[in-house]
Amino acid sequence: MTGRRPGVARRGGRRRPLAALLVVVLAVLVSGCSGTPEPQEPGPGDAAGEVTVGPDGVQSITLVSSDDYRFVPAMFSVLPGQVRVTLDNLAVQLTHSLAFPPGRSPSDIAESIPVVAPSESDTIEFSIRTPGEYAFICSFHEALGHTGVMTVAG
Fold first, then answer.
1. pLDDT digit string (tens) for 78-115?
2. Full DSSP string of 34-83
3. What are the pLDDT digits (tens) for 17-41?
4. pTM of the full predicted structure?
């Protein structure tokens, strides 16, 4: 005899593996919803943006931001002179900005776009003379890698 009573099931036989599986699934779901995206670095497909020169001689480029914490393009080059930068915010949820932080470039660029709401755009224009690399950022999301570089050729 086995010592079991007929009609009485053993407890815990199948419940432990099921409970362990539920814990693993819950842990995966919670970690996937942490809400802290990894900083973005320009990848091999991030080509330098194309700058156009208008009839007025102003060099122009449009940067696009969305919900992925990136500028597209993240890099572009201009010659010394007048520059016009437009920021198109194609994000569904995020507000973005565009600034050239003081002290991080050969000379300071005071012009900035402090706030661009989702589906909006704004433009700045400035004159630049000193060659070199000029960092630009989204002041809200710089820590998440929302940065870029404007190179002024010399």
1. 999 999 999 999 999 999 999 999 999 999 999 999 99
2. ---PPPP---TT-PPBPPEE-TTS-EEEEEEE-TTS-EESSEEEE-SEEE
3. 555 555 554 444 433 333 444 444 4
4. 0.70
CATH number, domain of 74, equals: 2.60.40.420
- Other beta carbons within 10 angstroms of residue 56's beta carbon come to 8
Cα separation, 90 vs 64, in Å, equals: 7
Say if 4 falls within a structural domain: no
Exposed/middle/buried for residue 146 (C-beta within 10 Å: 0-12, 13-18, 19+): buried
Q: In terms of residue numbers, what domain contains 143? A: 52-152
Q: Looking at the 3D structure of the chain, how many domains does it have?
A: 1
Tell whether 100 is covered by a domain.
Answer: yes
